[in-house]
């Protein structure tokens, strides 16, 4: 029997706990219906006997308290609501216990912004992780020693798993179902919940807003300058000169503040602008390309696909209904 511990965090998203428990309940039923023995023993673990959520709208009662829990085979950290850093601090007492569980053989999976608590344990240092794209800049700022790949829906490295934003946790749950059972059961589970089993990329859903949660005023002004003049043929030297900085100093400070190189930032601003035009406008791909400052079709297509995870044509087909 595989022991799965689901943490009932102090500000957990209740639906994520319920969905996770239900997935493995359904898998147990599928196994039983096919003449096999149910595999999963799902246990909710908390720091207190009662957890009030959403200003008392929901109350969760964990099956067991952390101090009384034994050893898990798989430990799941659900997403948290509110400010990610504050939410992590509220649940900091879980950190050393999660680390001990992992060192004793448990695999650990974080769902969405649950990645902040997993990173807080120190287990992700030097490893890959994903989280909700809207929290990517914040995550990179507080955990620079973790390799964040926020374009990915799921990551798996050394028994540590993570999933991207919101409903992406379904994909990780299906991934775990397949790992612990087999492809056939995973497909059956995916069909039961009407989930795309093979979605691995959340790039098309990312809305780039830039990282401005820093104190470098010159770089904030440079970011605003880029965002206002993205349609022009901007160069690093031009932007640096505008703010009276040497190119070397400008590039160093820009990367430190934004977690992007200047070129990456310019590209992402241009592609974000083109995505908006493709979503709601009627202009041709070439017209959109020229509007955001590109003149070469292949370059525009390659950069767009790298950032958005699909070609401009594919993106328009998915999001523009005109």
Structural features, described:
- With 322 residues, this protein is an alpha/beta fold.
- The protein contains 14 helices and eleven strands.
- The chain has helices at 14-33, 84-90, 95-103, 115-120, 136-142, 169-180, 183-193, 217-228, 236-242, 247-258, 262-280, 285-291, 297-308, 312-319; strands at 2-7, 40-46, 51-53, 58-60, 64-65, 74-77, 107-110, 128-129, 147-148, 154-157, 160-163.
- A seven-stranded mixed β-sheet has the order 5-2-1-6-7-11-10, sandwiched between helices.
- The model has no long low-confidence stretch (mean pLDDT 91).
Summarize the helices and strands and which ones pair or pack.
Elements lengths: L1 E6 L6 H20 L6 E7 L4 E3 L4 E3 L3 E2 L8 E4 L6 H7 L4 H9 L3 E4 L4 H6 L7 E2 L6 H7 L4 E2 L5 E4 L2 E4 L5 H12 L2 H11 L23 H12 L7 H7 L4 H12 L3 H19 L4 H7 L5 H12 L3 H8 L3
Parallel strand pairs: 1-2, 1-6, 2-5, 6-7, 7-11, 8-9
Antiparallel strand pairs: 3-4, 10-11
Distance between the termini: 52 Å
Strand order of the largest sheet: 5-2-1-6-7-11-10
What is the β-strand count? Answer: 11
What overall geometry do the principal axes of the alpha carbons give? globular
Radius of gyration: 22 Å
- Structural class of the secondary structure composition? alpha/beta
What is the CATH class designation of the largest domain? Alpha Beta
- Main sheet overview: 7 strands, mixed
Note the run of SSEs as H and E: EHEEEEEHHEHEHEEEHHHHHHHHH
Level-2 CATH architecture of the largest domain: 3-Layer(aba) Sandwich
Task: Kindly report the oligomeric state of this protein.
Answer: single chain
Within CATH, the superfamily of the largest domain carries the name: Class I glutamine amidotransferase (GATase) domain
The residue ranges in which pLDDT falls below 50 over 5 or more consecutive positions are none
- Mean of pLDDT: 91
Helix content: 40-55%
Strand content: 5-15%
What number of structural domains do the residues give? 2
In DSSP terms (H or I, runs of 4 or more residues), the helix count works out at: 14
